User: Fold this.
Amino acid sequence: MAFQVSTIKYSGKINVTPLGAQKIELGGQAAFPFYDFEGSLPHKTKLALQIWDIDPGEGYSAPLAEAYKGALGDPGTWAKKAVEYGADIVCLCLKSTDPNDQNAGAAEAVAATQKVLDAVDVPVIVFGVDNKDKDIETLSAICEKFAGKNLIVGPITDKNYKQIGAQALAYGHTVIARSPIDVNLAKQLNILLMDLGIKADKILIDPNTGGLGYGMEYCYSVMERLQAAALLQADDKLQQPIINMLGEEIWKTKEANQKTEDVPTLGDQVSRGVLMEVTEAVSLLFAGTSLLVMSHPESLKIVRSFIDKETDGGDLKDEGFIKVPITPIA
Amino acid sequence: MALTGIQIFKLLPGTNCKKCGSPTCLAFAMNLASGKAELEKCPDVSDESREKLSAASAPPIRPVTVGYGDTAFKVGGETVQYRHEKTFFNPTAIGGLIEDTLSPGDIAAKVKRWQALQYNRVGLNLRPELAIVKGGANLAAAAKAVVDNSDLSVILYSEDAGALKAATEALAGKNPLIGPATVANYKDVAAVAVAAKVPVWLKAKDLDEVAVLTKGLNEAGVKDLVIDTGARTPKKVVQDSVALRRAALVAQNRDYGYGTITFPNEITDSLALQVAVAASLVAKYAGIVVLSDLDGAVVFPLLLQRLNIFTDPQRPMTQTEGIYPINDPDENSPVLVTTNFSLTYFIVSGEVEASRVPSWLLIKDSEGLSVLTAWAAGKFSGDDVGQFILKRSGIVDKIKHKSVIIPGYAAAISGDMEEELPGWKVAIGPREAAHLTKFLKEFKVE
Assistant:
């Protein structure tokens, strides 16, 4: 008798969630990631690149500074470059508004967003600094100014969901609901947002992504459990697509920023950072992500190729990807 | 498949002789089912029942030990599909390919380089553990060159049973995994494995053929097996891996109850893409992944992923209590204290290092809790932390000042600490480690 794979019957599916005015769609999964032998998976995971509203300066990872050379400091130019590199979506991070740093206000945040929207025609995520009051100030203004553009704004937490949520609802944007690596807290925040009147397909779940080697496993298991709740138990309060802000987590680690000559056992610095980002991205794909916000364009290229072959089948060919140099060890 | 007490009872003699120590056969059966008794205690059980019972109590995916010494590892032995259901037990082994056409000198250089790829993290040594030696005529000499120049364990890769025999003999005591056993050669490979008592990996053309080979090899006397389903595309290799895990755990099909070996190096030539494929296989159940070459940029990300995926979700990782000097501190350098949750340690030590400010980081045992939870649970209280700094840590012998920085989330303990540490200044650091650089650059010890 021919081998038959044991299959699962799913009772729920992830909401199809349109992003931007262009209506790129996320979600729709009716099976665990890549398990197309037992359920339909209409949309591949989308890939965003993260850009800053200001020049990141000397603290920025050297491999990223190199990749975006000439674009740093101007969000419009940087956004264009991200799209040239293949990003489906651009994620503008409002770094200038951090009260612990430059503490820029709503006007600057609106201006930076305007530049990005003028420069590219892909959906745009506008991401605050995870500071309750500052994000209320900037994201509320952005929601109002760009009414009807269906921006994706966040992070929204249980501390500021009322203010930012109301603005997003009033002006037709999608929200990123961030909760601290916990299934029940994710559900609670979704309920609060839906009680405000926000439609189920206007919310993304941000489970608060941990970096590779820096707590990724917590987020990984919470995502698997979120998927199980959404697909097996058909919990309609958890059927939102998951977004992972992973690039930043990778490139802020010590190991991504150590020079090749300082630690030859860790190999070439650029390849190492790129492959750390790829490795975490692939892990999160299998945990159930719908949208990965990445940093390095080369990581995005590799992950895109992987997703295509993992979905459509066929051989994985080298399309001019980074050649990992073998680092000699004395 | 685990049997119930009643199912076990039906296989027992039913004499209620009490020789096993239980009052009745039924009571003994219940104890067997719950793992509180051993079948050996029953003097009268038939051989047939014994076989059925021991087969039923065997793990659904057979754990197979490969290799020797520090790099020995287990393949299989898993009991769940998702790590949060319990845990994954046996981390995916990572290895590089050695062609036997390389000169012994080149092999020596390569495996010495591979052996240097070791990383210490949370008290664990992360490293790739394997060389996969592939070829025919020179297999024995190449395998010998690997073990003579490194402590890496070895997988032999040749369809020529004669070459496997010679190489297995050259690796006596090193417990190599040998193969591939195929429908064409499996009897010959089995003979080599039985004689040398080593495990075998089999290569099928599809999942149907896997069962043909596992049955055939079992009949030929080889019980310790590792499966290669023959899949060589990223999609097929993952889907086969999932199919095998479910066949063993859900359908409880013994023919598929073995760990797997996978070959990202035969799926793509690009080393970067091999990492992507290997990452999918570490997440999705592979026992072994083979890469075309090993380098820090390639193995380090996979080792971190493996550490994360195979960490027991019910037990937090901890850092050993003690003093951690960062950026070469001296007697006037600031002292920071935090909890022993490994993530807390990593993030704080990473930020302190990035600040380039020479500092002493004290890690206090808080039972693996992060700062906020440790403080709330009373595992990071003022008198406790004060005692630790003054008496247990030994930091007072290393510094000339009396200042200590505590985490912002534990600000409430500063009063109690100052009582415990007379004459000391207890400074409250930032809540988030990300703000440590700024804090340390402005901080002055007193």
Observations:
- The first strand of chain A starts at residue 17 and ends at 19.
- Chain A has one domain: 21-311.
- Residues 21-311 of chain A form a domain with the TIM Barrel fold (CATH 3.20.20.20).
